[in-house]
TrEMBL record, chains A, B:
Lineage start: Bacteria, Pseudomonadati, Pseudomonadota, Betaproteobacteria, Burkholderiales
Pfam families the record matches: Acetyltransf_1
PANTHER family reported for this sequence: ACETYLTRANSFERASE, GNAT FAMILY (PTHR43138), N-ACETYLTRANSFERASE ACA1 (PTHR43138:SF1)
Protein known as: GNAT family N-acetyltransferase
Domain N-acetyltransferase: 1-162
Gene3D superfamilies registered for this protein in UniProt: 3.40.630.30
Length: 162, 162
């Protein structure tokens, strides 16, 4: 597996993965019926950088974004989001992308990484981020409207990188 | 005092207040050297609505913004930011604007209000938000680069509105 920057030619392969992930309504706040243009704005235009995890044969395994979490005086803390292709789950892709993103964040001069809305029912993700050194620093009551479970809590998770 | 929606004609009076507030670098993450265009984008274009608190004679006493804190499945939680004119401090303007914003948020259908980066050294604000029913639900270690004090903690504060 290699992790490399997104290129325009990747979009036709990338966006259906994001569409299906958001459509599930169980991990990301992006509207489940987000249009291709809205998804492109969120995953390509808004972030500082977008990365892809690819198999040796070029197949897309996952993707992540990296951006400052706040402007100016909060801009030393970055924010990331990760998506793993369904057929690639359980192979350590999320873990590898998260480690990669921390290295990349340090390289770009960020001092910490913050996740703003980790859905509490996404137990696998919470367990993985903890294993990788992130702490739950806050709980947002009923801040996520889960497609199946209704309003559920979300966590703010944080890791100091320096 | 009245609280009313921002109109274009208010900008010449409003933006120097925002410029000076951000320039101080002790309460908001917006870069202290933000340009007029950047400030307009942050305070007028990006928010769902922008409000002004004005004295009977029309003088600007304060301003606040209201917007969804997250898209889609997090869009039932709103976010607000408040600025009080230096000469109007200690007169309950922030408190009145915060109460107004909670009513407005409920009117717009929001179920909760979240502040993402309350600077821990801004003790007056923290005390006021607590008094108005907000809870510190998270602490972000050294997440704000204070112009005088360097890296200081910031709080996530939250209030359920329904």
């Amino acid at each position: 597996m290699t992790v490399r920057p997104f290129q325009d030619a990747d979009w036709p392969q990338l966006w259906p993965l994001l569409r299906d992930t958001f459509a599930a309504g169980d991990t990301y706040a992006f509207a489940p019926d987000s249009s291709e243009a809205e998804i492109r704005k969120a995953w390509i235009d808004a972030p500082q950088s977008t990365w892809l995890a690819c198999a040796a044969d070029g197949r897309l395994l996952g993707t992540y974004i990296l951006k400052p979490n706040q402007p100016g005086l909060g801009g030393h803390v970055c924010n990331c989001g990760y998506v793993v292709a369904p057929e690639a789950r359980g192979q350590g892709i999320a873990s590898a992308m998260c480690e990669h993103s921390q290295d990349e964040a340090r390289r770009q001069g960020f001092r910490a990484m913050q996740f703003n809305l980790v859905v509490s029912t996404n137990e696998g993700a919470v367990r993985l981020w903890r294993k990788l050194g992130f702490h739950i620093v806050g709980t947002l009551p009923r801040a996520f409207r889960h497609a199946q479970r209704g309003y559920v809590d979300a966590y703010v998770m944080f890791k100091t990188l320096v």
